[in-house]
Amino acid sequence: MAQMTMIQAITDAMRTELKNDENVLVFGEDVGQNGGVFRATEGLQDEFGEERVFDTPLAESGIGGLSIGLALQGYRPVPEIQFFGFVYEVMDSINGQMARMRYRSGGTHTSPITIRSPFGGGVHTPELHADSLEGLIAQQPGIKVVIPSTPYDAKGLLISSIRDNDPVLFLEHMKLYRSFRGEVPEEEYTIDLSKADVKREGKDVTLIAYGAMVHASLKAAEEMEKDGINAEVIDLRTVSPIDIDTIVESVKKTNRVVVVQEAQRQAGVAANVVAEIQERAILHLEAPVLRVTAPDTVYSFSAAEEVWLPNHKDIIEKVNQVLNF
Amino acid sequence: MSKERHEALGLSDDQVLEMFKTMLLARKLDERMWLLNRAGKIPFVISCQGQEAAQVGASFALDRDKDYVAPYYRDMGVVLAFGMTATELMLSGFAKAEDPNSGGRQMPGHFGQKKNRILTGSSPVTTQVPHAVGVALAAKMEKKDFVSFVTLGEGSSNQGDFHEGLNFAGVHKLPVITMVENNKYAISVPIEKQIASKNVSDRAQGYGMPGITVDGNDPLAVYEAVKDARERAINGEGPTLIEAVSYRLTAHSSDDDDRQYRESDEVEEAKQKDSIITFAAYLKEVGILTEEVEKELNQEIGSIVNEATDYAENAPYADPEDALKYVYEE
Asked: Which SUPFAM superfamilies does the entry mention (chain A) (predicted)?
């Protein structure tokens, strides 16, 4: 098995699907000869030609609309939005159009589009280059939102996303692109888009996270283990729809939960998870479900980023609160 | 004797009569929908009146067995020409389950029908332009001999998607024909407060494509412009922007009162140029629309509209559970 960074795994997934299915097209700003500003599409244009991997003009809404037109002709477009903060320019195409195509046409038209986009903080890019805006899309029925935390998951989830017959937003955390390597099979494989992953088993408390916060949660769990606290860590992997069954099963075991997200606090994925838990498993809880999130302010400037972003210490503090309730 | 205008364009007597019939059917359906709305039977009407010539003239210049259309909400003439029936349009007006456009899920005028290659559209205006460009890119990649045809109002030509879509089409020389139906008003805002250039078609220069302004009240002029554009598109010569100038004869919609923002004299003057009257006059002049033919046509269309209304009125609404369907693949 190869050792790959997450970005290599993402490129590998696109290469796999470009080979498997001639209807897969990869396009966006600078994805051609340049290979993408983060090199996610490096080498793909040389390998598959300018018809299947191509640069678009600098126009996000146009990229979204073009994807819909191509999807209506039977293609599986994999457009890239260069930074997810630029989603506001293509918001209507995503939430207003592709997510509703199946519904509004009574099932006769579909949009099997996978929008890839880098997001997330911790790499010293300021606001609109670092925001966690997954909640904006997670609120829209008709589209799935997938966020991998490891190279292995990135490849399997991206292949599944491209093959899915509904639109998928595939968010790639920039801090995870090259921060570590992991084992990734060279052959193709898929990962169910409706399944969370128990990253670490434990009995005292459940930490629920996604994206980079999975790693902060694992770090917190390791530190707490030294003090005899045994934490379970769940990686949601797909934040819309959410795998509630896996969460509830864990809650029944640990009776204590902390939900971790990098996004700001209000109206986010974590709030939704908390609501689902209290509706389904309140009698299994020994303490209120707490959240670790960024503050409800605009994304921080670079110098304050490490303070602004949630980290493993914030998680440990909340775990102590739920344990000592 | 010199050839008549339609003959010079390669159109037979039957074809021009069929054009007129389609225009008249669109008009009569639209008029019926207003009556139904005022009688409290259907919730909303958004009209084609005044734009039928452009819609039908353009459609007849396309290959209606191959080409794709991405219409906008006034395009009853286009979708009728592309095979949607009067009954289907009435089902949409009544928002009944059988409505092939969306099963009553969208507002009327949100046309879409896969079997007739009518792309389904969205409510914010101009979103259909990049969709049509995507379809045209597919045609080019697959070397297929179809074009995509997209329409919009002149107000919509101010949206970003107009620019983003036409720019991409121009860069890649795609087989897409964009027709702006300039009816002089974006709801209440007159053309001179919408657009700084003299014509909408002037914008084509910026996208590296021909820009043509035609009389949108003359179906034959529109036919000619679209036919030329299609030929260029099929020959790999790229996209065309056509501006068909006409006038919106009704208020913006059944919920709008146009007396707030335009003079009735202006509307009355436009009515003198109504294509339903002027094209009928042409057809009479060349001896195609005889008194007898006109009488039969009116009777036929009257009964089509009546039957469509009766059928749609009596058709069932979708079950409430249907509101939960078609969100994800099942």
From this structure: Thiamin diphosphate-binding fold (THDP-binding) (SSF52518), TK C-terminal domain-like (SSF52922)
